């Protein structure tokens, strides 16, 4: 096992100091991923790289960020080309997506580029350092949530593969009751293990009411396990409070609630990524592997509408990128005689991966809006014109 021993000690201490010597899985996942000094994202920006544990869409081709730049340019136009257009990217990884958006905008849409105020909210120190190196020649600033006044953002909140890494509660159907997974420590060998106990917060029951799903209706087998991402709802509420006028674009892998909480999906969606391989054991390689869970897009839509957000559209990434012109770029590859065949084939392969319906192409893209007048709401975004 490749455990971070200092992080292990922190987790064991947290368990020891808890009143009943147990912590929720969500608290465990928070420590593993986001502890400010020893967490997975805090210690190295190389996590997201060919030498690390996983890659994201921007690593395959700059076209991903360029397609988003096209969409953001259209949003700027829909908002009547404000003098200051704020793009707030949350959890910006190594800064690659931001650089793609800004470089393309500077080249193709100079007036739009001049209006952009690009803001990054990043909690992981190692990632922020990598972002500052990647973006040192571009107009970007970093801040935390408290530095953004409420109802101040005119533009777009953007996230790519952020929500799936939020800490999740794990719940279990056991003996006709809804219970929760806790993490405990074996006192003899200091190994972490699980304990099933009562639900830790009433918000978990409220979550099922929001989704109108009843795990105790007899359709779910005893031992059925799944996840609840309360952190995603808290994050969405925070974003909503900051947005004065504009859009929220959330890109991630996930399902609608009816697919996510299908009785046949009896062990949930939790996955761990370690050196470009994945498995479902979150208690090995502690601090040195990523832990994720798919996103419940229905919950984000329903809560968003309760808050006052309008659902503009929900679409698969492949269809979204094709609508924005990625298909034309793929078609143009065969007519390009200026590059060697190997490079052209590699580029074609990377672009196809972005739209692969069995891979990145099935990622969900949820677009929500707030503060737009009726005329602006009536304008469709190109990425949704299908």
Structural notes for this entry:
The protein contains 16 helices and 17 strands. The model has no long low-confidence stretch (mean pLDDT 94). A hairpin with a 6-residue loop joins strand 7 (177-185) and strand 8. The relative contact order is 0.15. Helix content is 38%, strand content 23%. The chain is α/β, with parallel strands linked by helices and 386 residues long. It has one domain (5-317, 359-384): Rossmann fold, CATH 3.40.50.
Give a brief rundown of this model:
This protein is an alpha/beta fold. Helix content is 38%, strand content 23%.
Note the gap between the termini.
48 Å
- Within the largest sheet, what's the order of strands? 4-3-2-5-10-17-16
The level 1 CATH classification is Alpha Beta
How many β-strand stretches?
Answer: 17
Q: How many individual domains?
A: 1
Please report the number of helical segments: 16
Task: Please give the CATH architecture.
Answer: 3-Layer(aba) Sandwich
Shape: globular
Radius of gyration: 22 Å
Strand content: 15-25%
Q: Largest beta sheet, briefly?
A: 7 strands, mixed
Multimer state: single chain
Helix content class: 25-40%
Which stretches of 5+ consecutive residues score pLDDT under 50? none
Q: Which fold name is given in CATH as the topology?
A: Rossmann fold
Roughly what is the average pLDDT, rounded to an integer? 94
Which structural class matches the secondary elements?
alpha/beta
């Amino acid at each position: 096992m490749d455990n971070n021993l200092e992080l292990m000690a922190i987790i064991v201490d947290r368990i020891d100091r808890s009143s009943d010597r147990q912590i929720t899985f969500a608290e465990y996942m928070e420590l593993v991923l986001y502890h400010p000094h020893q967490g997975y994202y805090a210690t190295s920006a190389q996590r997201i790289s060919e030498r690390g544990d996983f890659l994201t869409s921007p690593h395959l081709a700059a076209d991903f960020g360029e397609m988003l730049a096209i969409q953001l340019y259209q949003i700027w136009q829909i908002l009547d080309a404000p003098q200051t257009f704020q793009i707030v990217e949350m959890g910006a990884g190594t800064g690659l997506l931001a650089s793609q958006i800004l470089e393309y905008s500077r080249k193709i849409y100079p007036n739009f580029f001049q209006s952009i105020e690009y803001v990054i909210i990043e909690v992981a120190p190692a990632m922020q350092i990598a972002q500052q190196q990647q973006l040192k020649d571009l107009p970007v600033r970093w801040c935390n949530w408290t530095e953004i006044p409420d109802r101040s953002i005119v533009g777009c909140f953007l996230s790519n593969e952020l929500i799936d890494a939020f800490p999740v509660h794990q719940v279990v159907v056991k003996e006709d009751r809804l219970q929760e997974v806790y993490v405990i420590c074996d006192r003899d060998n200091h190994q972490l293990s699980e304990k099933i106990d009562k639900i830790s917060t009433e918000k978990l029951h409220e979550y099922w009411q929001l989704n109108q799903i009843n795990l105790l209706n007899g359709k779910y087998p005893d031992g059925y396990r799944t996840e609840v991402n309360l952190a995603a709802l808290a994050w969405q509420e925070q974003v909503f409070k900051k947005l004065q006028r504009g859009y929220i674009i959330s890109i991630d892998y996930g399902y609608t609630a009816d697919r996510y909480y299908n009785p046949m999906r009896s062990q949930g969606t939790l996955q761990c990524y370690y050196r470009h391989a994945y498995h479902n054991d979150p208690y090995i390689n502690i601090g040195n592997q990523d832990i994720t869970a798919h996103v419940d897009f229905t919950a984000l839509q329903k809560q968003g509408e309760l808050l006052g957000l309008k659902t503009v559209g929900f679409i698969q990434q492949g269809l979204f990128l094709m609508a924005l012109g990625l298909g034309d770029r793929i078609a143009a590859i065969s007519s390009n005689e200026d590059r060697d065949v190997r490079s052209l084939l590699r580029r074609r392969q990377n672009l196809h991966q972005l739209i692969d319906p069995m891979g990145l192409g099935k990622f969900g893209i949820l677009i929500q809006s707030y503060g737009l007048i009726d005329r602006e709401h009536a304008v469709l975004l190109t990425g949704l014109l299908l």
